[in-house]
Amino acid sequence: MIGFLHPWALVGLAAAAIPVLLHLLARREPPTVTFPAVRYLVTTTREHQRRLKLQNILLLVLRTLLIIVLVLAAAGPTLPRSGVTGHAPSALVLVVDNSPSSGVVVAGTARLAQLKAAARRVLARATPDDALWLLAADGVPRRGDPPALRDQVDALTVSSRRMDLGEALGTANAILAAEPRPGEISLLTDLQASAVSPAELRAPLVVGRPDQPPPANVGIARLETGPQPWGADGGRLTVSLAGDTSRATPVSARLGDRPARQALARVGAPAVLALPGAASGWWQANAELDPDELRLDDSRVGVVRVAPVAQVNWDSAGRYAAAACDVLEANRRIARGGEVTLGRLARGSAIVQPPEDPAALGALNRALAARGVAWRFGPPVEGASVTDSGSLVGRVRVLRRHALQPAGSGRTGVLATVAGGAPWLVRSGNVVLLASRLDPAWTDLPVSAGFMPFMDALVNRLARGEVSLAEGAPGDAVVLPDLVTEVRQGERDWRVEGGGVFRPTEPGAYYLVADGDTVGAIAANVDPRESRLAPAPDAQVRRLWNNARVVSLDDAAGLAFGAAARGDLRGPLLWAALLLGLAEVVLASPWRRQAR
Amino acid sequence: MPSTTIPVRPRLDLLDPFEVAKLGGLEVITEGVVEGFLAGIHRSPRRGFSVEFAEHRMYQPGDELRYVDWKILGRHDRLYVKQYEEETNLRAMIVCDASRSMAWTGSPDSVLPKLAYAQRLIAALTLVLLRQRDAAGLITFDDDVRTVLPPRSRLSHWRQLVATLAALEAGQGTAAEPALRRVVDQLRRRGLVVFVSDLLLEREIALKALRFLRHRGHQVLVLHLMDPAEVALGGPAEARFEDPETRAAVVIRPRDWAGAYRETVRTVVHEWRLACRRHGIGYHRVTTDTPFGVVLREALAPSSRSA
To answer: How much is the pTM?
Structure first.
């Protein structure tokens, strides 16, 4: 389809009407001249009238065509053409998939090196008139001229971020949508099946993928650290594998720099490794596989909190909460004591539910105020709603609740909300407030499967000031709890705002700090989908991506501007205008018209 | 050969007709033209008609050397030329087209209308003929025969001819055939017929009448008068050209048609010339900016007339 570099110039096509208008305007009654030899004129015109009329029509057409051709040339038309050596000024988004899977080594060469070589070949065909963008796994489009982008391609390394190819193509599409030049996308990728997702494309797409099949690969998909905190007697790490082979693979895991434990695991059959107890505190757990062709998924980190179990007083907790505490005590997840009081406001840490008798609400709020708690129970709220689907509570139905109202100092310490964002579980200091009683008449939580983990976390972590343990991949957005003011990783730290979003930059353990205390952690690891290296079939790619051209990496460079190669029609049009002008001059020249 | 000083006088017969016409009335300027013409010609206008030797006279500059009597030169060392005299007088009939188209000129400020040019040309021609003691008559016509002056050889007849010509005004249409046929009544024996017209008429009809005259043994000469603007088409960028006689009109751009028109005129003239030659009729195309003397020379040259 014909595209235009300067489509606004097409407005000038209106000028094509000028010759016709002039012709119509010039058709006035001519002056009368007395001339005796009219019979000669009649003889002359009888013989030549038809030819001259044809000549005049031809002149009119020539002049109109001349204007049209000049206007079209000014608009810079381009036409899709194959096999052209040059190309019209184009917009190209070069997508280089440097996701973790590109780190695989095939036949002694890193896959990313092949992709970068192909990218350099693509850029070698670019001209200074092209608009070029480079889009890599970090998702940031970089615009530049060919030399600048070549430098950036050279600087590309294997990223720990996953690249969803459908999203990347969507970004490329959005870039090209604002570009007047004819655009195209060149995607250089290992075409991992797990990275392929649908995309609506308006620009031509050339997909360059390696010819050699990827090697069989196994990586650690998940490292579970179990219920937190761990007691003094240790805990268990569960290591799950992902990959293209089901062979048994040795796995080693350790806590910090303590001695590693080993076990055999296979895809679909996780290994459970029991680790001995450690001193109280935050520990980084590491699981590793023997090195293979893709190193980035051969290790994974987790975060373990080691602390004595909470000593809980649950006498007034209610029937369901008390039953849960009994079970936790039986499993040595809690012990009886006065460290945490469940159900009422007491000295030390307390988990407070709204009173069954609304008349007691005022006294409770006054006691909260006296304790310096920043939240109050508000009026009862009727009507069913559901909690958010966060890691702490999950998604459970709430039938009754009291509004939780901040007492002047702003909304901080929200741990869970119901739909619409209303606080449902909040903490202020060492007091945790529940908006609903732990009773099936108020919420389905006590009769749900997540009740025991919730109670474990509630008494062992939340009531003791800990917030959360989260997992994510580098680049993924992790929502920070309200209380967090800082994120630390090794020697690095980031000032953050509670309730905001944090994106880990690379794999590792990130600790969440609130008022100087570590209250949670984020374990950032490579997306487990990167371990499955099997490529998507070409047919599937073409179906999902609007008949994209899927070629080998070697051919991608040749087709980069060739697939969307558009011949610049300005030259031929200007030649055509020249020829039309010459024809017009010849046809309209006086000697030519008089010589007949 | 004795040396002779030739006085330098302006010869009206070689001046621009428009300028000549400004010098005086028809009679005056015609006499001037004829005098210039007769003084300039090297050959006797009478030569070629059935002539016999008459007498000798002294050689004058301009006389052709072939008429020098070499015997007298040898005997007496004097230059004499032999003069001849017509055996019989020539009877000439001038037929003048006085249609509306003849009154037209493309450049009123510099070119005589065709009719005015014809008046002066005919006056000069008849004066030459009368001075040779030939008889000359005149017929004028437009869409009908207007005047008929029978041929007379008296010099005083010229005054009558000039008066008729001076009073001649353009009529409407053109009907040459009746006028040409009237010539038969005026020329009982073989004579000369000079047809002066712009030939904007039906060619076949006119040719038929001219052939008829030839058939009657007359020498026929056609003087085809054309205005220079009729030869080369000009005018505004676009114009409606209207025939003053028929009111036929055509709208054209002269610039576009000049070449083709010139070709058409060339063809028309060529066809007239061919047709006339085929029937032994003399033909001359005369543009109205041509000096009278040039036309008279061509018209009176024996080779220009039919045999």
So the answer is: 0.51
